Structure prediction request, 203 residues.
Amino acid sequence: MRLVDVQARLLDLELAVFNTSDASAWLKISRAHASKLLSRLSEAGLLVHLSRGLWAFKDRVELMALPQYLTNPFPSYVSLQSALYQHDMITQIPAVIYAVSIARTKKFVTPLGTISIHHVHPSFFFGYRTTPKGDIKIATPEKALIDFLYFSPAKSKLFRSLPELELPRRFKISEARHMISMIRSQGRRNRVLSLFENLTSNR
Prediction:
């Protein structure tokens, strides 16, 4: 089967991202054969290899939607610096896409960009909205900030300090405080509350 024919067949899947098993079933070939064909398409620049067994068509996938595909079957949403930037709360464009998930913490370096996943307990996995198209989940302004403060003690030092922060008029202080109250660890809850109060003392 010629690569151009394989690409055409896969385009008929009408999926932005798919796994090797999807391709195998669609092309009616073995998984091993599908894996070899997909690798050849990737080497030819006709397909993007995201992670083990996961592939994408570059012109079909939204960069901000990648976290959901990479943490599947566990859910995730864009947050931290990425969401803060999207909500115009910081002006510095993050070099990577940050996301929160109940999946384990992990960094994915893909041809489309670097995705940094950060784990939270399921009880703290909330506070996001889905875009109108339904393909991207992103933290609310309140949760994006609280998530950032939540991870501030991390050894990676990725969340030690923020560039100049501007809270939007729609930012709800009371809602953010309620989110802080949902943190299970009392020590971390007190730390986040203290950082939050310092940031919002002029509001």
Summary: The chain has eight helices and nine strands. Residues 186-199 form the longest helix (14 residues).
